[in-house]
């Protein structure tokens, strides 16, 4: 199925509330890769080591992982709109404070607060878009995925442009953009319906009792370690100016967006989701291995190329998390993300330390091994990942539940942040 066949006619004709939420989502996803081009500059400006600066990712994603257990609890009680605004307010405050940091410890702490805000916002954004979008859930999901890809591509570019003046400016820029998003959502988004049943903090953990969802989460855990070794450790290996590093990761983000939204669904239709995922993970492992042992030009090319494999993986993992179990999508997503974001916190912490203990090549060897482990989980647990009651749409990768039950996400009051 062509991803643009679903809701193409109405994709661009959306209510202002949808565009306000999607626009704020772009900025939220920009925050993930924002610091990539300026990591060396931050280390120099705060007299910190690569290992210390890498904690910017660790604190951010550690808090994000834990917060996944809270987002449903919060949004099912105060509603989707207020949860979005609360998350945006946290990001505005802590991103602004990050720009004033006088030590790497302060900056790491502020990034943790930023991570909490981002978790509250992005975990709710899809549900809000699905509830307010014209053209059904297929169009809403495509719009959300497009926002994610655009944000991941533009984050490093913004970080490079502002970071070339000062490493502090990207943080102030993000706070300003998110403040604009806050005002837009306040003006254009009406309150979303609260769910009939309030979500418990333990519901996402209970959902992991399903073998298929647990398998998807474990496989994604290994994959995320590889993903964030590339994202958080490679800038130190490339050792480029903010502009050049930003250009590299912008190209990386463009490939991620194109392969996530356009290429992956077509490949799934032709080959099947699990074959596509397993093959892409193996290719990512090979790419990362060459990145670690190649010369500088090879490392740049492999960094950019990894965006294609990451884009494919993100799409397939999203659909597995949403459709492989019979748990409500928001609950299943929260449990899945709780597991996998711990790897996003671990990779930036361990990669620089592995380099200190060994040499610069070994962190990429470890990352290649974790990608292969993710593929092995898919292979060994393929039956659990393709249960008869799976809610994935066999013709195109869009979860059937997303097309048949658009009320589900809006009523549960929380969306997903599975990419």
Helix-strand blueprint:
Blueprint: H1 8-11, H2 16-33, H3 39-45, H4 50-53, H5 55-78, H6 80-98, H7 104-132, H8 136-163, H9 169-188, H10 203-207, H11 211-238, H12 242-271, H13 273-293, H14 296-323, H15 329-357, H16 362-380, H17 400-404, H18 406-412
Structure characterization notes:
With 419 residues, the protein is mainly α. The chain has one domain (8-412): MFS general substrate transporter like domains (Growth Hormone, Chain: A), CATH 1.20.1250. It has 18 helices and no strands. It has helices at residues 8-11, 16-33, 39-45, 50-53, 55-78, 80-98, 104-132, 136-163, 169-188, 203-207, 211-238, 242-271, 273-293, 296-323, 329-357, 362-380, 400-404, 406-412. The radius of gyration is 20 Å and the shape is globular. Residues 3-9 and 387-419 have low confidence and may be disordered. The chain crosses the membrane at residues 17-35, 55-74, 86-108, 114-134, 141-163, 169-189, 210-233, 245-264, 276-294, 360-380. Residues 17-386 form the Major facilitator superfamily (MFS) profile domain. Its main location: membrane. InterPro entries: MFS, MFS_dom, MFS_trans_sf, Tet-R_TetA/multi-R_MdtG-like, YfmO-like. This is MFS transporter.
């Amino acid at each position: 199925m062509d991803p643009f066949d679903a809701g193409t006619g109405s994709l661009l004709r959306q209510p202002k509330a949808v565009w306000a939420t999607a626009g704020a989502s772009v900025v939220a996803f920009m925050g993930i890769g924002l610091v990539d081009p300026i990591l060396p500059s931050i280390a120099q400006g705060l007299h910190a080591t690569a290992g210390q600066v890498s904690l910017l990712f660790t604190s951010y994603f550690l808090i994000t992982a834990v917060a996944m257990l809270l987002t449903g609890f919060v949004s099912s009680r105060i509603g989707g709109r207020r949860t979005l605004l609360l998350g945006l307010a946290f990001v505005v405050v802590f991103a602004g404070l990050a720009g004033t940091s006088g030590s790497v410890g302060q900056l790491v702490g502020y990034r943790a607060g930023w991570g909490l805000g981002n978790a509250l916002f992005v975990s709710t954004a899809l549900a809000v878009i699905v509830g307010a979008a014209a053209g059904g859930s297929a169009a809403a999901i495509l719009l959300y995925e497009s926002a994610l890809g655009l944000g991941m591509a533009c984050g490093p570019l913004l970080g490079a442009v502002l970071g070339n003046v000062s490493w502090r400016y990207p943080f102030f820029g993000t706070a300003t953009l998110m403040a604009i998003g806050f005002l837009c959502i306040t003006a254009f988004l009406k309150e979303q319906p609260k769910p009939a049943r309030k979500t418990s903090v333990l519901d996402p953990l209970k959902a992991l009792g399903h073998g298929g969802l647990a398998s998807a989460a474990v496989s994604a855990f290994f994959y995320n370690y590889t993903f964030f070794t590339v994202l958080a450790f490679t800038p130190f290996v490339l050792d480029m100016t903010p502009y050049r590093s930003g250009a590299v990761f912008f190209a990386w983000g463009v490939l991620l967006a194109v392969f996530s939204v356009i290429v992956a669904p077509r490949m799934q239709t032709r080959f099947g989701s699990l074959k596509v995922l397993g093959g892409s993970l193996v290719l990512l492992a090979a790419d990362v291995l060459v990145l670690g042992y190649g010369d500088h030009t090879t490392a740049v090319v492999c960094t950019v190329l990894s965006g294609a494999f990451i884009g494919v993986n993100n799409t397939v993992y999203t659909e597995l998390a949403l459709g492989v179990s019979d748990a409500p999508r928001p609950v299943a997503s929260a449990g899945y993300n709780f597991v996998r974001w711990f790897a996003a916190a671990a990779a930036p912490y361990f990669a620089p330390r592995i380099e200190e203990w060994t040499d610069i090549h070994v962190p990429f060897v470890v990352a290649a091994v974790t990608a292969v482990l993710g593929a092995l989980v898919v292979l060994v647990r393929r039956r659990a990942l393709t249960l008869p009651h799976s809610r994935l749409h066999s013709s195109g990768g869009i979860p059937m539940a997303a097309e048949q039950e658009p009320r589900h996400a809006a009523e549960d009051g929380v969306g997903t942040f599975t990419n």
